[in-house]
Fold Permease.
Amino acid sequence: MAELTQNPSRAGKAALDYLKTPWAVVVALLIAVAVLDPGNWTTVVTFAARALAHTSQYILFAVLLLAYLKATGAEVMVARAFEGRETRMIVLAALFGGLAPFCSCEVIPFIAGLLALGAPLSAVMAFWLSSPLIDPPTLLITAGALGWPFAIGKAVAAVALGLFGGFTVKALMGHGAFAQPLREYKPAGCCGCGSKKPDQPHWRFWQEPERRARFRAEFVHNGLFLLKWLALAYVLEALLVSYVPADLIAGVVGGEGLLPIATAALVGMPAYLNSYVAPPLLAGLMEQGMTAGAAMAFMVAGAVSSIPAMAAVWSLVKPRVFLTYLGLGISGAIIAGVMFQML
């Protein structure tokens, strides 16, 4: 009897969980177009399918690369960026921030452990600011949607923002700021972080059954993850191109000068988009009149304000450090947009 009463609730929960997935949103959007504008349904689907097929080569390479990094244990190399002189730590932290294959659940305990063990806030801030902006899959997907110049520009902006934030915090700490940046925290080590010393990466992962199994699991997991988010992204881009007037976009974030770039950064921060969804949508916005500088500012500000990144900062450090993080992110996004527009 208990099973009869519990199964409906489980089925209802499963159905509710499915409705929260990108697949459900894609189906709902396409059904809405079919009902409200049936004449445009084929155009929307064709646009999204072609864009997804164009990006598929980047998805495949990105998934293989990420699975390889996870299977070899290459992420342990990031810990080495936080050893040695502070200036060296800042530089390496900014560089590794764009290369680290951490998921959002892993980066929080990793950073928490570093802070709890006494790593300088300046180097940690450099990593925090650069890490949400770019990683190998995001780089490839951005290149597929917006071209290699934009992807490389974003990667450069990620490292530059990390350096900007790290050295700014270092200078402020030299004047007595952030003497006690941490809230009370005890590292949990849920992702193997904390005081545990990292092992060496095993580049020939295929020689060990456990690493081969992890490679397969990561390949499937990340492949499905990227596929579902990019399917949603390209459907949204198709709807944007079809139904949002170009004059509206051009009026808000089009034109020359600082104002469109600053506006895009300010809009991008609260309107955070998944790093895999943002490039296709920005491609659509640029077709409608958004400038390249405004697009860069929007993407940088949106990545800095990602929920995992902000949650990590807020949960570990005091409010003044959190506000500094946001201030560095928004100012860095505007500077990145201006520089990219000039170049």
User: Anything to note?
Assistant: Residues 185-198 have pLDDT under 50 and may be disordered. The chain has one domain: 50-179+195-342. Residues 50-179+195-342 form one domain.
